[in-house]
Amino acid sequence: MMKPMIDDETLDRQLRDAAPYIDDGGFTARVLANLPAARRRPSQLRAIILISLTLLGCAIAYLLSGGGRFLVSEGVMELSSFPVWMLFVFAFGCGLVVGAVAVIFAIRKTPEVHDDLARLGF
Prior knowledge:
With about 120 residues, the protein is mainly alpha-helical. It contains 6 helices and no strands.
């Protein structure tokens, strides 16, 4: 017969009650006070650089295409010739891709998954 699983709050309370506090004479506080300040993560700088280069590339493509005249005239003509069902399928597919990417990023932000991915080297 299986025992029922214990929820997180109950387990946390049991672990806190089971482990008494050991007085270390302020050692832990001194160590934490001497730790270096958290550095700014380079991923923020990387994101700024990537977004800036993407915007620059879009601006160059826009200018090279004649200010978007080609995109507007030809693009609208092409879209107007598509059947409506194909536009719905395209829109649905785009929604699935954006949703999948959002779910992947949301899962990667959870601490448990982040620790597992760090251990695997991702």
